[in-house]
Write a structure and sequence with these properties.
Blueprint lengths: L2 E5 L5 H8 L3 E6 L10 E3 L2 H4 L6 E5 L23 H19 L6 E6 L4 H6 L8 E3 L18 E6 L28 H5 L4 H23 L1
Parallel strand pairs: 1-2, 1-4, 2-3, 4-5
Antiparallel strand pairs: 5-7, 6-7
Helix pairs in contact: 1-6
The structure holds S-adenosylmethionine (SAM).
């Protein structure tokens, strides 16, 4: 089974999907886990990824300054913040993305983030366009289930295949709770929420790909 690091995750959604399939999965975040577990490392992903891992999936690293929807703050800072702070946060976000994307010793790497603006792309070392974009509803089958949501999600992939859709929904009834989240302290958490159907597909398809790669290297 693969040794898997799920970065920037407190919810444990992706970690639990890999654990359910028998992988040696760990989550890592600067913050503690949302729920009690002995499978969460509280720390900086850039330190934790230095260990030996077969697969690293970084789920939605801080994106407020990288993503298209926030590009306006680079010319007009939100109330109480300065433009210098906005650009510094952009540099920090791009540096974290770069460190994860270019980690040399992990053979399979996935990074999940929204659509990025050009200032972010310019700052990322060895930037490539995302391998694919997915929507949660493409991985769901129940109209009332948690996956029947719209949220365009880009996946940057190295050493991993694109995800095949596993659901039967067609998107026509998909909800838009992520974009409609009302302002408040928890808004960022709702907007970065992850979905069980995509998580299960990652564990199933990427777990298998990582093991196949390992077997081929050992043969
Ligand atoms: C947008 S949230 C992603 C939440 C995730 N989708 C989940 O389901 O838990 C970004 C997360 O990245 C974490 N983070 C930021 N910088 C980090 C770093 N250097 N190392 C590890 N985690 C980091 C934040 O604490 C935050 O929990």
């Amino acid at each position: 089974m693969a040794k898997v690091l799920i970065g920037c995750e407190t919810s444990g959604i992706v970690r639990e999907a890999f654990l359910a399939l028998g992988h040696d999965a760990w989550s890592c975040d600067l913050l503690p886990s949302d729920t009690p577990t002995n499978r969460h490392i509280q720390g900086d992903i850039r330190d934790v990824m230095q260990d030996s891992w077969d697969l690293m999936a970084v789920m939605h690293p801080p994106c407020t300054r990288l993503c298209n929807s926030g590009v306006r703050w680079l010319t007009q800072a939100p109330t109480g913040r300065s433009l210098d702070e906005m650009w510094r946060e952009l540099d920090d976000g791009a540096a974290l993305f770069s460190a994860c994307w270019n980690v040399p010793h992990i053979p399979c790497v996935a990074i999940e983030n929204p659509v990025m603006h050009r200032h972010a792309k310019e700052r990322i070392e060895n930037y490539e366009p995302p391998a694919q974009t997915v929507q949660p509803w493409q991985f769901g089958s129940a109209p009332d289930g948690p996956d029947n949501e719209k949220k365009r999600t880009c996946l940057w992939l190295r050493g991993l295949p694109q995800l095949s859709h596993t659901g039967t929904l067609d998107g026509s009834t998909a909800r838009d709770s992520v974009h409609k989240a009302s302002p408040g302290a928890d808004r960022w958490k709702i907007r970065s929420k992850f979905f069980p159907g995509i998580a299960a597909a990652m564990a199933d398809q990427w777990g298998a790909a990582s093991q196949a790669r390992y077997a081929a290297a050992a043969a």
